[in-house]
Amino acid sequence: MGIVKVSEGMHENLRIASNALCRSINAQAEHWLRVGMLAELYPELNHRDICKLLISLEQQGGFDLNCLSAMEDAPHVQATIKQAGAGQ
């Protein structure tokens, strides 16, 4: 586990969101990191589709950036991305 420094303002945002969503501050930060990373990798996906992709990845063994590029050809990942593109 590494340590990431964030601004006081972002830490306060994390604290508020983590309390509201019943997560630890670390779990909330990790959630936002995953969502943000996938949003940058797949800008055509909306938040709902990113959450569906995260669930699909968890069912396949968890979120792993090293494996994600290999999984891009997997039918469940392609289906999620195609559905997002069709909804625009």
From TrEMBL:
InterPro entries from the UniProt entry: ParD-like
Domain of life of the source: Bacteria
Pfam hit, one: ParD_like
UniProt protein name: ParD-like antitoxin of type II toxin-antitoxin system
Organism (species): Pseudomonas lutea
